Putative glutamate--cysteine ligase 2
Amino acid sequence: MRTVGVEEELLLVDPDTGQPKALSAAVLAHADRDDPGQDVFEKELYRQMLEFATHPQSNMADLGAEIMRCRKEAARHASETGCTVAALATSPLPVSPSISANERYQRMAEQYGIATQEQLVCGCHVHVSVESDEEGVAVLDRLRPWLAVLSALSTNSPFWQGRDTGYASYRNRVWARWPSAGPTELFRSAEQYHRRVADMVATGVILDEAMVYFDARLSARYPTVEIRVADVCLRADTAVLLASLARALVETAARDWRAGRPPLDHSVSLFKLAAWQAARSGLDHDLLDPTTMRPRTPADVLSKLLEHIGDALTDSGDATCVEEAVGKLLRRGNGAREQRRLLERTGSLRDVVIECVQHTQG
């Protein structure tokens, strides 16, 4: 059974006004005092953000419980500094991001100018274990068509600087400004993958290997494939669904590789269109079918995904839970739809943030 770990980036906000608060250093200091040597919470590029990482889990119920525990622990530490946490991929309210006191982050601000100042976005990264770099790269080559579908189901950032952007995931579009971000060509071997990464670093355009922001990549720290396309999900059960689908996609890709089935060879140009469409539409309008690259309804595309990974879901024991979770998500909507529905009901972006704080903590 492949293990799965999740990294979530959370927004630190004022519990009364919903305004982002630049208090990550204080929150981390409290977490370190409360639990010396803790390795769960980390600082991010901006002082208005806090990141946590779960431990690798093979059981999805255990993963969901850990995500909720980490979210509640983050909220507890934040409350000691006068703020709280919200699983929002962008701030609905206007904000002036404040870069963390970190030499590397300051170098990024100098190198990338205003693009760095406009990157206050929160994502969810899913790590799925692989047996080797060679298996991992074979998986990366076969994941490419399905990543936009994972992006669509996680969309949770319709607002930016106090306005509706018209996108379900504006985080996706902001993130695309980094020079190394986005879909990739086929690598075909671990050797070619590592050569590509080394060549990119050698250009000097990116600072280091950690800035290779592929939609999915080999982790430099763990024996995992790291899938990086998702917004942080408003509700923890959506994050668990995302992780379940990611594990099944990795397992299916690995089986296809071992069976000698080649990856689909769509162009990067088409993958960019699929990513844009997913960011624009979320689950509310057509997506691009991963196999044909033609528009189909979200329900049809998700049905095709479940068919593609059906054997892996059955073997992991996740099939029934995943099918029910997909149906629930299509009915309820993801974070983007919920945020817009809250604004329509309350008429206030402040109230949107305050209610999303409650959803964050279950």
Notes: The domain at 4-346 is CATH 3.30.590.20 (Creatine Kinase; Chain A, domain 2). The two ends are 28 Å apart (CA to CA). The mean pLDDT is 96. The chain has one domain: 4-346.
